[in-house]
Amino acid sequence: MPATDAAGSPVVELVNVSRRFITPDGKSMTAIRDFNMSVARGEFVAVVGPTGCGKSTTLNLVTGLARPSSGEVRLFGQALLKRAPA
Ligand SMILES: Nc1ncnc2c1ncn2[C@@H]1O[C@H](COP(=O)(O)OP(=O)(O)OP(=O)(O)O)[C@@H](O)[C@H]1O
Ligand SMILES: [Mg+2]
Question: Per the UniProt record, which residue ranges are transmembrane (predicted)?
Answer without folding.
Answer: none
